[in-house]
Amino acid sequence: MKRLGELLTRIGLLNRRERYSLTYGGWGLIILLMLVVLASILYNLDSFLSPVRPVKSDVLVLEGWVPDYAFPEMIHEFRTGRYRIILVTGGPLVKGFFLSQYQSEARLSAASLIAQGVGKDSVVAVPSPFVIKDRTYESALALRKWIDSVHAPITSFNILTLGAHARRTWMLFNRAFGKRASIGIISIVDLSYDSRHWWTSSEGVRDVIDESVAYLYAKFLFHPPSRN
User: Fold this and answer.
1) pTM to 2 decimals?
2) How many percent of the chain have pLDDT more than 70?
3) Could you tell me if residue 146 is inside a domain?
């Protein structure tokens, strides 16, 4: 085989070149660097999914599905941020619908805010219809439709939501509104797990991984129909 190669080289059918290849040490260094990058991504994943980027506005939007422990912080934000109104979004209740007079997350959370001292005139429930998927986007569309129907001069607002759901919410509301409004996001810390070490609990792993997959789906695969 060697002689054949030399013969083919002499008659111009082959070229002989030097080739560099990684040693075991080189491969080990590359694998180590990849592991460091992966660990850094995982360590900062919850922070990426939970941004706090408010804009200057006097309108606060609350996702009505947030747990009760988020309400004190939300009320604090409303009062210290000098907002004039809270718009509460959310679809039908998934449990207690037939017993509750409110029947939607939006109305239930709006009533909870009023019960905790927020003025009735400062809270508006904006419920969305039942859908089997893309509920956040449907809530954004319902809010846009409500703003259009009342001819309210709302050109900016901040959304308040929980934990790792925030970045997906922010993105989907921006898609629904387009250039109609400047939208900020405020993520309240999810107390069901330690956000700094989310990988140490089943709740943290489930929530962060689920939201990561949902964000990637919304970012690259979700193509909503045009609704004007």
Assistant:
1) 0.88
2) 97
3) yes
